[in-house]
Specification:
Number of strands: 11
Shape: elongated
Order of helices and strands: HEHHEEEEEEEEEEH
Distance between the termini: 67 Å
Radius of gyration: 20 Å
Strand order of the largest sheet: 5-8-11-7-6
Largest sheet: 5 strands, mixed
Number of helices: 4
Structural class: alpha+beta
Length: 215
């Protein structure tokens, strides 16, 4: 007996990840061009406060770049076969460019405290978590080192969005906030969100002012 053939839904699911990866690469290219041309941060409107976070990972990015360039140069010297040499060179150059693009996306896509009191927590083109103003509760400075995955959801409903393994701002939530992980998996922050900011005091002050203005 023949097995049933996969339907259209299965085909769409199989294409979801490749399509998201292709879209991510296009966004990274756009972010690099925005960074090079020094255009304003992505989707930060009048009255909004941009909250940078990329400086927290600069040392890690520089180390990754050094290793990538050194590896590319070493392989170019050591590999004698022209075709293999060319393939590894292309991979090495692409890998180095990819690291630069990732960092550019983090620079040009900061967190955003909206003029209406909403909060948008981002990590480059990989994460875009939006908290409506009516779900932003108490905000405080709170340095933690959660470790593990960059985006981690705990059983108590807390979600950590770390940079270089750390967070320093905690936002208590007044209701659940759904979001989408990097490869499209749905997730939800229920009780609190912790994230990293290069200037956490400024982020807390902006959120507190917006909350006080609503009350």
């Amino acid at each position: 007996m023949n097995a049933p053939s996969p339907g259209p839904a299965a085909g769409r699911r199989s294409l979801r990840v490749p399509l998201r990866l292709a879209r991510h690469e296009l966004v990274l290219v756009a972010a690099l061009l925005r960074w090079i041309t020094r255009r304003p941060p992505h989707q930060v409107g009048p009255g909004d406060t941009a909250v940078a976070y990329a400086a927290g990972q600069s040392a890690t990015v520089f180390i990754m770049l050094f290793v990538s360039v050194a590896e590319t140069v070493a392989l170019a010297i050591l590999i004698p076969w022209p075709l293999v040499h060319l393939i590894l060179l292309v991979i090495g150059v692409w890998g180095t460019l990819f690291i630069v693009e990732l960092h550019a996306a983090c620079v040009t896509r900061p967190h955003v405290v909206g003029a209406d009191g909403s909060l948008r927590v981002r990590y480059g083109a990989l994460l875009d978590l939006r908290i409506p103003a009516d779900r932003v509760g108490r905000v405080r400075l709170d340095r933690r080192f959660p470790g593990g995955k960059q985006v981690r959801s705990a059983e108590d409903g807390t979600t950590d969005v770390s940079v270089a393994g750390q967070t320093n701002v905690t936002v208590e939530l007044l209701g659940p906030v759904p979001f989408v992980r990097a490869l499209g998996a749905p997730a939800e922050a229920r009780t609190a969100l912790r994230f990293h900011a290069d200037d956490p005091a400024r982020a807390v002050a902006a959120l507190t002012r917006a909350r006080d203005a609503r009350s």
